[in-house]
Amino acid sequence: MINFTARPRSVDLVVLDDVAARAYAHSLLAAGVPFAVVAARESLLQPFAAAGHVVALVADIDDPDQLAGVIGRVEQRLAPVGAVVRYRADVPPMPELGAVA
Q1: CA distance 19 to 25
Q2: pTM
Q3: Full pLDDT tens readout for the chain, 101 residues
Q4: Which of 4, 59, 74, 96 is the one with CA 20 to 30 A from 85?
Q5: Whole-angstrom distance between the N-terminal and C-terminal Cα of the chain?
């Protein structure tokens, strides 16, 4: 169950392939920010699966149909996907972590 007080305007979808993206996802998790994670391997999702403010999905992000399905499920359960964070260059500056609304 997703439980947060204010519905965010958008959420990040973090692909757990890259070390920097995983670190970013862990920082979002610790901050209590609603977001989504996707990985090809379920084992990478385990730290996020029990969090009430995270949608964690297994998918092949390189498959356009699977990516569309992931985005649809995230938007249905949380909010529109504002950014896909896959590589170090995609990670936003950390001061934005507090911006949920």
Answers
A1: 10
A2: 0.85
A3: 455 566 789 999 999 999 999 999 999 999 999 999 999 999 999 999 889 899 999 999 999 999 999 999 999 999 999 999 999 999 998 655 444 43
A4: 4
A5: 19
Question: Which residue, chain included where needed, has tokens 């990985």?
Answer: 39
Beta-bridge partners for 94: none
Per-residue CA distances from 80 to 23, 36, 71, 77 (Å): 22, 11, 8, 9
User: Residue 38: CB partners within 8 Å, gap ≥ 6?
Assistant: 13, 14, 15, 16, 56, 57, 58, 59, 61, 70
User: Where are the alpha helices (H) located in the chain, listed in sequence order?
Assistant: 19-31, 46-49, 64-77
Strand partners, 81: 11
Identify which of 7, 3, 29, 2 has the alpha carbon closest to the alpha carbon of residue 101: 7
Domains of the chain (ranges; CATH) run 11-91 (3.40.50.720)
